[in-house]
Amino acid sequence: ETGVTQSPTHLIKTRGQQVTLRCSSQSGHNTVSWYQQALGQGPQFIFQYYREEENGRGNFPPRFSGLQFPNYSSELNVNALELDDSALYLCASSLQGALEKLFFGSGTQLSVL
Amino acid sequence: GESVGLHLPTLSVQEGDNSIINCAYSNSASDYFIWYKQESGKGPQFIIDIRSNMDKRQGQRVTVLLNKTVKHLSLQIAATQPGDSAVYFCAENDSGGGADGLTFGKGTHLIIQP
Fold first, then answer.
1. Which of A84, B22, B78, B114 has the smallest number of Cβ neighbours within 10 A?
2. B55 pLDDT more than 80
3. What share of chain B in percent tops pLDDT 70?
4. What does DSSP assign to residue B106?
């Protein structure tokens, strides 16, 4: 088990709503990354936060946004939910630049109806 | 666009046999590669990594081979066990690409038969 915890584990929303997902990073890790994993696919990089700032982003629209707090925990916010946003959202923590020490949480399963 | 992909969606092997999972990548600037294992209901778990200045790296029961000429990566698992059943992903990173994110392939489901 990694020390990365995510909440909630499952969530059901309707199209157009907004959602906030939460992540507590492993102790000592200062960087948090978020990934979206659609059913049967590999995870896709959404963005990364370091020192409370977004410092890298994948190919996701602005309605995907995030926050990192002084204790390094993080939130992922998605506005105007679409059906295609249904996926497993994974949080991963690491030390900055240490991809080989990237630890993933078990994810939040989001269903958009 | 640039992507990392896998050749087979499912691989079935007998317990005790060796397995080889393959991966092709297209980003010639990728310089770091990782294999992950994902079990049902869990996040990806690091197995082994390799940098582009190497062509082979060994771990416990696992070996990763990198062929930069043909942009091919493979994961060899020796003496497979029931606990090896999972989906395996290769992932790559371009350290000069700015965003410190990984690009994952679609995954291979490894099934260990008794």
1. B114
2. yes
3. 89
4. -
